[in-house]
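>> Question from a student workshop board

For tomorrow's exercise we were told to take the sequence and the ligand below, predict the bound structure, and bring the output to class. My setup keeps failing. Could a helper post the expected result so I can at least see what it should look like? The ligand is NDP.
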Amino acid sequence: MSVNILFAAHKDRWAQYETPLRRALDAIGIDYALSTDMEPGGVDYIVYAPNSDVQDFTPYKRLKAVLNLWAGVESAVKNPTLTVPFARMVDDEGLTQGMVEWVVGHTLRHHLGMDAHIVNPDCEWAAKAPPIAADRPVGLLGLGALGTACGQALSDLGFPVSGWARTPKSIDGITAYHGKDGLQSVLETSQILILLLPSTPETENTINAETLALMPKGAILINPGRGTLIEDAALLAALDNGRIGHATLDVFRTEPLPADDPYWTHPNVTVTPHVASETRPPSAARVIAENIRRGEAGEPFLHLVDRDAGY
Ligand code: NDP
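>> Workshop helper replied:
Here is what the output should look like for this input. Compare the format with yours to find the bug.
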């Protein structure tokens, strides 16, 4: 019997995903139908993005799993009608690689003090070499698929890397902490702090007046995680009083960031428009196909969301 797969993402995405998905599904050798329009009662799998028109999963009586195209699941995880196994996207070749490049690039910008020479209208000859990576401790909040890959890339460059997760971990190249004391250890030592936590009720405002006060004076904050991780008024105050030297922010509570938001004009803030990384169709399609293969073979799905934890 044919496996029926509904593609339910923003309509612009179908053109990018149809061919890679067909190629990946052909490679796993199942008999399938793939479409953006199917009778709900016959659908086996939904390839999903939370901004699609499908918000009520109750008519999908035969559904075996929902396979998300995004890593972030904060909106879908709250959907009470989504009760079948729900997998998030872990796309090592595309999404993760893109995040590693973005994080390493922005970390090196601040580590090397590149801005001083890129924009130098007064022709200042400030001949002071930056420290080497070994003298610049870097911290990562979030040691999941993205945080671990970024931390290991930074460690490979020579940075001393510490990281914080919800559960204890042992990761090559990263000194891993958990718990409240663990957070304090990472914050106290990180001259550059990168946020790669998911948005959950527990992670909201992880960066607040109290935690910012623990950081070394002039520390750099880089946030490609989610806007909710930061209490914005506290960060702006820390930027104004010099506790934080610069914040590079890719994600915000409201996106697009409103034109009158103070982040746009703050001299020590760089705003990037949620471009740190994205799922790439060829590699993401292979991840989706592998999960469908597993579902059909009765094997456990990869990358399942823990609804209680919220990510
Ligand atoms: P994962 O789920 O793999 O990792 C999440 C990490 O956060 C885990 O290490 C987890 O701990 C930790 N964590 C979760 N809750 C807590 C908590 N309460 N206290 C301490 N640590 C916690 O996610 P990914 O690495 O794949 O993605 C991270 C986030 O990056 C996404 O949720 C998304 O918001 C963002 N993102 C941003 C993009 C962009 O372009 N800006 C693109 C893609 C993703 P543990 O390991 O113990 O479970």
